[in-house]
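ok so i was messing around last nite and threw this chain in just to see what happens. nothing serious, just curious
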Amino acid sequence: MIYVGIDVAKDKHDCFITNSDGEVLFQVFTIQNNRKGFDDLFSRIQSTSSDVSNIKVGLEATGHYSYNLLGYLIDKGLPTYVINPLHTNLYRKSLSLRKTKTDKVDARTIAMMLMSDVNLKSYSDTSYHNEELDCLLPSDTSSISLIIYVLRIQQLVFLPFFFLLMQTDNYNSARQ
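result:
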């Protein structure tokens, strides 16, 4: 099995590639956050294994900075895991008493987390959309609470416009 750890940042990503025996296939290297950098990463991954089912890629969830890379990896068919940075931090601290926090160390840590298989779920487009929808819904999803929720949204949207309309001259002249 091949494990790829990626520490995501705004302009660049630090990557580390190892195998299940712990042999380092590529020391930490940096790619740019653009198509050329993504292609460079993918060519290095392909050089280690042609079977994508034999590869696991992990990257930290750092908001919108990882979206392009994540989409690229999924389009290439690579099983990709998005990891909470807090979990990465705690896992790194559990491995060493030293206070080492660098992007290069994080890339290696993410690969080690994939190797240990610490209850990770592969990313999918549907999981992303479900997360987005869950944020919009109230915690209690009974039909009554959903109706109340929709009514509150309508009040937030329509009431300010109604009051603005009442203040216009056209509305006042139409009432007379």
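not much to say yet. The beta strands are 2-8, 12-19, 24-32, 55-60, 80-83.
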